[in-house]
Amino acid sequence: MENTLEKLKALLKNSMPDTDTEQITRDSDLLSDLGLDSLNLMLLAIVAEDEFNIRFETGFHPETVGDLCDYIDKAEAKTV
Amino acid sequence: MKSYFESERYENSRKYFEDIFNDELKAEFAYLPTVTALLEKSCAHFSAHTALTDTKSSVTYKELYEQVAHRRALLDEAGIPAGGHVGVMCRNNFDAAEWFLAVTTSGRVLMMMPVSLNAQAITGISAKFDYDAVIADDEFLPLTEGLKIPVIDAAKTSEAVADAADINADTTAAIFFTGGTTGAPKGAVLTHGALMRGSRNGCLYKGNTLHKKSIMMLPLSHIFGSVMGFLSGLYAGDTLCTCPDVKSGIGLIPVFRPTTLVLVPGIVEIILGIASMKGAAFLGDLHMVLCGAAPVPPRLMSEFKKYGIEMLAGYGLTEGANLTAGNYDTDVKPHSMGHIYPGQDYRVVDGELLIKGDNVMQGYYKDPEKTAEVLDSDGWLHTGDLVSFDDEGYITITGRKKNIILLPNGENVSPEEIEDLFYQSPMVRDCLVKEDLKNGHAVLAIEILPVAQAFAGKTEQETEAALTALMQEINARLPSYKRVAKLTVRTEDFKRTGAMKVSRLQQ
Hints:
The structure holds 2 protein chains of 2 kinds. Chain A is mainly alpha-helical.
């Protein structure tokens, strides 16, 4: 959902202020477009878990921003 | 001529570290020659104090001592020979900590295995390092199915007890993986004396006390996690909280409320990022952070200071049992890595730091060629780090002689290892992997000079698309920290060395 994408962008901006969030779309690749390594992703996961009140499974390895949004939307639907 | 150890320079370095303690702490942090001696001391001095906890259950120092004796008995019952090599593949949990101590104090050789290894890598490593057995958490047992050596469920123990073996400082204790310059991981062979010198050095900092609370955030397969994150903690009678991975460890900070953390800069960034969003309460009782294993940006220290938390930076390498230099007064020289720890001689040759002492590895396991590249016949370890010393003996790392890229998460990446994968493609004439910034984050970048014939008649966009596809295909085979995030297609040749190799220094 659009809302999830916007919330994720805000989380990225707040937790990693150096990140340029203007150009982010669902298709943005987390590594090659955003330059997020495994530690940056961990930070994003921790703040997103808090924001969306969900838990990321250990085996979840998102490639794109869209993968993250879909996972969050699905997990949120379950908790509602 | 006086030896270095009788010199004024050595005396100054010794005093720098040791005069910060009162007599009680000096005695508590006295050098011990073996892991067995450490375990005995901890049991005798801190018996009823909690050694390990996962916030639900806990183990006292006395219980830890006893559990380790039962685990040793199981190693005997499994028929693992004296001096045998034992791989341990566990997350940081009670089992991992107890097996670490049981294997080493039984006189066997420990190899803590990174939990990111796949089945194929486990088979390869077991053969290369002559494993006699593997101990694994149930989560990893399926990955060991192809092994032809005994595999022990890490949760198991024995009813019986076995005494510690008769060992000394020169007995081999462990082999630690370290980034290979040509791809395959090397194994740095460390004695009990080396591990204990490292962990004793890990105690030498301003403000260190007994019975701190810490979270074992770094894996025991990493020398910094093993030495400073674990053994130095046992030295001081600390309560160590285990956690299955870094993410859970960070989540434990406001729950377990550690007073001290041993971290790499990448994790410091995460913790500071969360604290900036959630506020200081997230950091609980934390007042000291010990940081190393990768270059430590001074700004991290000032960030922590805003929360009243002190951060001390240190420098070390796997081949020197982790702790070579440390800073006990970071405020004075935040760019510095402090003073060389006592117990080591050092010299600077052509700008490169050389160290010598009982903390230095015996060599890379079964790799005399690679060993000879870093360890000379006089016992000097060539660190590959370019350094400068100021008049007061503070050391600053100015660069690296070797081509290893040290990422903020403390992982070593050999550019050649990744370049080799690209060279297997008929599209790549030459390439160069280096560290670069992408969107404000440190990442691995590659420049590729394509084979002209492979792209005859193709547009620049088509060439880039084909090479991007190659990059994605190679990335998919690599662990996440080794993936290349940025690709540049070169139209001009690289600058080259006299031997026509791509020059790493002059692009």
